[in-house]
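Below is how a single chain appears once it has passed through the pipeline. First comes the sequence as given, then the structure the pipeline wrote out for it. We keep one example in the README because the format questions we get most often are answered faster by looking than by reading.
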Amino acid sequence: MLHTWGQNLHLHPHIHCVVPAGGIAPDGARWIASRNSFFLPVEVLSARFRNTFLIYLREAFRKGQLHFHGELAALAQPDAFEALCDHSGKVKWVVYAKAPFGGPEQVLKYLARYTHRVALSNSRLESLENGHVTFHWKDYADQNRTKTMTLDAVEFMRRFLLHVLPRGFVRFRQFGFLANRVRQEKLALCRSLLNAPPPVPNPGTPAASDADSKDPDPEPHRCPICKLGRLVLTEIIPPDRIARRMLTFCRTPQPQDSS
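Resulting structure:
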């Protein structure tokens, strides 16, 4: 999962990966588990990730898929871009791996909070006064103390928009036995090989058969998008009132652009 921001809204791109401690054997007949005392060589993984990343980055440059603006405009020149890649290939990249302290459930809950979250939640906003935005943030370099930061509104918007991804960009992906095309049958095979009990159905999640059923939805007020939330009726606005509001808005003199 791609995560691009830090607490102060500066660009801090990094990815979180959940890696299972084992996998299905190539013949599909058994589960291969890692050793309890050793999972994988982190330094080897760091070098492999760096080299693979740079391979695809160079390929994207050759295909004209990268665009450089502002301070990065000079990187549009092949020599400058190649020099950057050469320098990056000599730097030790950081891959930090550790076992979850509270178990896999805690890790998944932690990452789940970021899957559809924006860079700054409304609860962190303190005020907007005189063209300045104040919000609170946690300073990890100062013993996780909570502090307030005030930015010019333009600078605040610049930082926030750094984390608005291009249309159609996928922030998180699944691979292996969690890949979309094989997830259902592969997970069933994993449970069979591990002698694991069947999953407990979530009462808040509709069954797969419900989506294909032609019968009326037993919960007609269920949100048609997330399938979990409930739509609550607060008011019905008659069409004539909507028309009157629109007519009033159109008749109201709009401010003219002084430029």
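Confidence is low (pLDDT under 50) at residues 208-216.

See the next section for the split statistics.
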